[in-house]
Design brief:
It catalyses: L-aspartyl-tRNA(Asn) + L-glutamine + ATP + H2O = L-asparaginyl-tRNA(Asn) + L-glutamate + ADP + phosphate + 2 H(+); L-glutamyl-tRNA(Gln) + L-glutamine + ATP + H2O = L-glutaminyl-tRNA(Gln) + L-glutamate + ADP + phosphate + H(+). By secondary structure, the chain is mostly helical. Helix content is 36%, strand content 4%. It has a domain of 38 residues. It is built from three helices and two strands. Helix 1 packs across helix 2.
Length: 95
């Protein structure tokens, strides 16, 4: 596949990139170079290769899933303008 100047201009317009007319030949050449790299990648045999999320094997660190109350009630309520009986106190909004 080859990109000509009119296609490069259309791609630039779709990407909302202003490209001067004298720069279109260089842009088309860059697009063609990129497409050449993509064609090279399609030639690689990947049969039997498992997909990876990273180039190095990683194991997710996990913590024990334990239900707690956080033990931070006093710390959290210290910022409240009004706290009563361990809860935030707010004005009544409905009668």
């Amino acid at each position: 596949m080859s990109i000509d100047e009119s296609t490069a201009a259309r791609v630039a317009k779709l990407a909302r990139i202003k490209v001067e007319p004298q720069a279109l030949p260089a842009l088309a050449a860059e697009f063609n170079t990129i497409l050449g790299f993509i064609e090279q990648l399609s030639e690689v045999d990947v049969e039997g290769v498992e997909p990876m999320t990273s180039v190095t094997p990683q194991v997710l660190r996990r913590r024990a899933d334990e239900v707690t109350d956080g033990n931070q009630q006093d710390k959290i309520l210290s910022n409240a303008p009004d706290a009563r009986e361990g809860f935030f106190a707010v004005p009544k909004v409905m009668e």
